[in-house]
C-alpha cells in the first residue's frame, strides 16, 4: 500500500445529535404534511359553507355543557337555534370548541376561556338573533360562517398557525442538522 492511499480508512459516523435532529425534522415534516391536508380540506369545506344562503335564526336555548376527554374535563357552548327557510321551519344545533374547566390549573391562550364562554351564553338569551348559513340541499344543516362565539365558526385561521409552526420547526431542525456536517 502506498503512503497516499485511502483504501484502509473508515469514514466516521455522523454525531448522534445530528441523527436525532434529522429524525425530529422528519417527524415535523410529516406533521406539516398532515396539517397541510387537514387545513386544505377544512378551508374547502368552510369556503363551500360561506357560499350557502344565509338566514337569521333565533336562539331557543344556549348553555354550557360539560365535556370530558383523555385530557381532562372541559366545557363547550351548545345552542339550539330555530329558523325558517321558505315554507319550512327548522331547528339546528351549533356549538363551540371545548375549553378547560375553570378548576383545572393549566396554561391557556387566550386566558379566561371558560369565562368568555359564560359571558357569551349570558349575552345570548332565548330569542337572540344569530345569522347562519344553511345548506340549500339540506336546510336543516347550518354553519356559523361569521360569529363572535368563542371557539365557534371557521377554524382555518388557527389551522394555518399550526401549519406554520410545524413548517418552521421542520425547516429549522433539518437546517441545523445539515449545517452541523
Low-confidence stretches: none
Q: Given the structure, what is the number of helices? A: 3
Major sheet attributes: 6 strands, antiparallel
Strand fraction equals 25-35%
Q: Using only CA atoms, what is the Rg?
A: 25 Å
Shape: elongated
**Helix-strand category:** alpha+beta
Summed over residues and divided by their number, the pLDDT gives a mean of 85
In short, what is this structure?
The protein has 3 helices and 6 strands.
Please supply descriptive tags for the structure shown above.
single chain; 181 residues; alpha+beta; 2 domains; 3 helices; 6 strands
Descriptive overview:
- It is a single chain.
- With 181 residues, this protein is of the alpha+beta class.
- The chain is built from three helices and six strands.
- Strands 1, 2, 3, 4, 5 and 6 form a six-stranded antiparallel β-sheet that branches.
- It is elongated.
Secondary structure layout:
Layout (H helix, E strand, L loop, with lengths): L15 H36 L2 E16 L2 E14 L2 E8 L3 E2 L12 H10 L6 E7 L2 E6 L12 H24 L2
Antiparallel strand pairs: 1-2, 1-5, 2-3, 2-4, 5-6
Amino acid at each position: 500500500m502506498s503512503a497516499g492511499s485511502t483504501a484502509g480508512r473508515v469514514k466516521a459516523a455522523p454525531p448522534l445529535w445530528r441523527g436525532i435532529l434529522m429524525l425530529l425534522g422528519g417527524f415535523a415534516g410529516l406533521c406539516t404534511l398532515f396539517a397541510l391536508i387537514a387545513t386544505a380540506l377544512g378551508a374547502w369545506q368552510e369556503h363551500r359553507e360561506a357560499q350557502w344562503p344565509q338566514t337569521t335564526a333565533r336562539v331557543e336555548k344556549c348553555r354550557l355543557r360539560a365535556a370530558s376527554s383523555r385530557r381532562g374535563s372541559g366545557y363547550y357552548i351548545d345552542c339550539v337555534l330555530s329558523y325558517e327557510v321558505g315554507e319550512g321551519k327548522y331547528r339546528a344545533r351549533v356549538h363551540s370548541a371545548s375549553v378547560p374547566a375553570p378548576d383545572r390549573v393549566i396554561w391557556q391562550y387566550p386566558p379566561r376561556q371558560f369565562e368568555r364562554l359564560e359571558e357569551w351564553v349570558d349575552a345570548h338569551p332565548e330569542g337572540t338573533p344569530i345569522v347562519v348559513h344553511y345548506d340549500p340541499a339540506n336546510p336543516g344543516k347550518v354553519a356559523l360562517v361569521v360569529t363572535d362565539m368563542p371557539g365557534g365558526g371557521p377554524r382555518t385561521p388557527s389551522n394555518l398557525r399550526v401549519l406554520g409552526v410545524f413548517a418552521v420547526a421542520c425547516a429549522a431542525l433539518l437546517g441545523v442538522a445539515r449545517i452541523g456536517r
